[in-house]
Automatic annotation (TrEMBL), chains A, B:
GO MF assignments: oxidoreductase activity
Keywords, ordered alphabetically: FAD, Flavoprotein, Oxidoreductase, Redox-active center
Protein name stated in the entry: Flavoprotein oxidoreductase
Stated family: Belongs to the class-III pyridine nucleotide-disulfide oxidoreductase family.
Cofactor(s) essential for the protein: FAD
Domain Pyridine nucleotide-disulphide oxidoreductase dimerisation span(s) in chain numbering: 336-438
Domain FAD/NAD(P)-binding as annotated: residue spans: 4-310
Family matches, as Gene3D superfamilies: FAD/NAD(P)-binding domain
Organism the protein comes from: Virgisporangium aliadipatigenens
InterPro entries: FAD-bd_OxRdtase, FAD/NAD-bd_sf, FAD/NAD-binding_dom, FAD/NAD-linked_Rdtase_dimer_sf, Pyr_nucl-diS_OxRdtase_dimer
């Protein structure tokens, strides 16, 4: 008997699951139907700021595989612009609405279901937030909308609300398009994903780009005129704006899942086991920005919407659906980005995370270079490590630098993943040659200094 | 009572040991005398090819700390141009010859001894090998000699014998100085430190630089005229040469140690324990290019002369001499270099190493990019992994690529160091953003393909 797999959301997570399931179970065993409410499949949402900033082409270049490829090469019945509006777990069927055909509804039965509906941008209920000229940035369709506004309206001034990854990246993109940008951030620093001392380095880089960064400032309302946004009102100032971009993060898009009776966790994301099966739901899988996962250092549930996790989780779900065995054990919070030429990377816990989790710790921060100091174009980088007092175990690392800095976080991430102590790290056999590192790599210099502090 | 530490060889290993010992034991406890037969202390030998190639300044820029700094800031009595010619373990004294003062000899007693005499270039007994115009490249003094010859003699044609790290780097350096270069290599590929398939990529890069590379060719003699080298005779051809550089590797400089009765291992290097104490010799330590160490994957003794190991081993010796506790557990064979813009990196075992050690293994080779494919200046890289059949444990990794490729070896090295399987690696939380990686980092793509091969 042919089984049917229904996939809700045809982006990274959903289509990784579908492709992997197809790899292991051919058409005569498994029929696959995927519903996507947007215009694009399997795209790089992370590429949107670079598209808006004219650094990369779009939207097609950002699509890893298009619907035609999935249909022809994977025999997956991808239904674009179809929004799933209901899941009936008892009857094993979903109801989808065809957005391009007057919302005509259809019902499709399933044996197995993958819920991969992604995330939705956080949108506060500020007065004026629904006015023209105010954008969230989550989907390629959102990216297209921002681009169209910039091309057509030629805004002179932008306000970006939120100085996290998307906020900072969009600020840089808009500066590249010749817009004067102010970033308003509630916290005391930009890029709260790193510690305040490292965030200060990001602030300096944003200053250098001509971005005005206003921290410790809360938005109260958006002012409008003739149905368009004209300013952002905060508790401290009025910032004129011809375009407003909301970079306030996203939340799991799980309203439909909740309605169907699937189990949500404390973060609002779907709870799954290590094989990406939704807990207490037979034959239902979930992956991507709509699920919560485990932080391996704290054991706590976290919602970390990143394309890299979505791809891995989707792959794991698909392998398991296909009859194989694969697991996604959790995350350690690795992330990298750049602000102009400044590279910013982190893994593991920040100081505040470590405190909250009850760790006693020491930190050490060092400055070194990406290459031997005497080698041409050696550039500075700052490396900060956090290690547990007593055990000496690495708890977190942060790197801010000018070149070849961000991806050094990977060696730290693998060390941390394996529970290494900073003392053990000092023996690590890392690559050394003058064009690539000082004889002590910056991360080893940081480990040395951390180990010395632990000794005291 | 004040103890005296004598250090033989004031380069990376010796002076790391001396500095660490000084950190922990002040002048009133420990007197430190260091003998150096050359003109420089603590220099980057790895920088020599870049100095010869006019990429970096030298020689002073290559010196991390000069004798004056050691004397004034570390209270270390550095005696330059003093060659130690005898060690008497029973009487606890060394005899040194002052090379700049007619070889006047002096004797200094010691309580503890660090042997850090480094390595000497392999110099075959080919006829003509001692002629003017033939150079090894090991010390800064060697580097200065090559530079002087190039500046003064303006050689039109060079032959580099040996296509390992130093050979390839010197070939590139000489091309940069306008010399026509032929590299003669006994093996069937350049850069035998990587597998033949990866070595082929290096060959292509060398071709692209205009370097003539002759593999499977054995040197028989060097032809001379008027006391100068004029050609290299091999078993297959005569290669005219106005300068010949020997890049045949180095061997531990342990003649003096052997004469004194210290224990040498199978590689000819000094045998030490994990704390860098020479085995069976009370109060004698050794570090750097003169020692052998353990390959952690095979358990075999290996001689891997690299500045990064020398620094670590010296530090470990010094901490232990100073009353602390530190160990150097061994190496996994990580190394990186570049050939023009081609980055070459390796860690762990090659296929031939794995075979020799008795591993059954699978390999997978993938091509991917350093950045998201759609991001500007995305460059290709090739990643090859070797994993043990059955256990799935990573045994080795090799990377050849155009940009931001070589240092990706570090994440592999840390994974390998921790005994990860390629399957476990698939869950690794590595840094992802379009400017830094595709959503699946090249090393994860390689791990996926290797895991798939293991499944079969």
């Amino acid at each position: 008997m042919v089984e049917r797999l229904v996939v809700i959301g045809a982006d990274a997570a959903g289509m990784s699951a579908a492709s992997q399931a197809r790899r292991r179970r051919k058409v005569d065993e498994l029929e696959i139907v995927a519903f996507e409410r947007g215009h694009f499949t399997s795209y790089s949402a992370c590429g949107i700021p670079y598209w808006v900033g004219d650094v990369v082409d779009g939207p097609d270049a950002l699509v890893a595989r298009d619907p035609k490829t999935f249909r022809e090469d994977y025999a997956i019945d991808v239904r674009m612009r179809h929004e799933v509006v209901g899941i009936d777990l008892a009857r094993r069927e979903v109801t989808a609405r065809d957005l391009d055909n007057g919302g005509r509804e259809s019902t499709v039965g399933f044996d197995r279901l993958v819920y991969a509906a992604g995330a939705v941008p956080v949108k506060p209920d500020w007065p004026g937030v629904d006015t023209a000229g105010v954008f969230g940035v989550q989907t390629l369709d959102d990216g297209a909308a921002v681009r169209e506004w910039v091309d057509r309206e030629k805004p002179a001034r932008a306000v970006v609300v939120g100085a996290g990854y998307i906020g900072v990246e969009m600020a840089e993109a808009l500066v590249r398009r010749g817009v004067e940008v102010t970033v308003v951030e509630r916290a005391g620093q930009p890029m709260s994903t790193v510690d305040p001392d490292m965030g200060e380095l990001v602030r300096q880089a944003m200053d250098g780009l001509g971005i005005t960064i206003r921290t410790d400032e809360n938005v109260r309302a958006l002012s409008t005129k003739d149905g368009r946004v004209v300013a952002v009102e905060t508790d401290r100032a009025t910032h004129p704006a011809d375009i407003v971009v909301l970079g306030l993060g996203v939340r799991p898009n799980t309203a439909l899942a909740k309605e169907a009776g699937l189990t949500l966790g404390v973060t609002g994301g779907l709870r799954t086991d290590r094989r990406m099966r939704v807990v207490d739901a037979d034959g239902v899988w979930a992956a991507g920005d709509c699920v919560e996962t485990v932080h391996l250092l704290t054991g706590q549930a976290v919602h970390i919407p990143l394309g890299t996790h979505a791809n891995k989780q989707g792959r794991v779900a698909g392998i398991n659906i296909g009859g194989g065995y694969a697991t996604f054990p959790g995350v350690i919070g690795t992330a990298v980005t750049k602000v102009c030429k400044l590279e910013v990377a982190r893994t593991g816990l920040r100081e505040s995370d470590a405190e909250r989790a009850g760790f006693s710790y020491v930190t050490a921060t060092v400055e070194s270079t990406n290459r031997a100091g005497y080698y041409p174009r050696a550039e500075f980088m700052t490396v900060k490590l956090i290690a547990e007092r007593g055990s000496g175990r690495l708890l977190g690392g942060q790197i801010v630098g000018r070149a070849e800095a961000a991806k050094r976080i990977d060696a730290l991430a693998v060390a941390l993943w394996n529970g290494m102590t900073v003392d053990e790290m000092l023996s690590l056999d890392l690559g050394y040659a003058p064009p690539y590192a000082p004889v002590w790599d910056p991360i080893l210099i940081a480990a040395r200094k951390t180990a010395e502090k632990l000794e005291r």
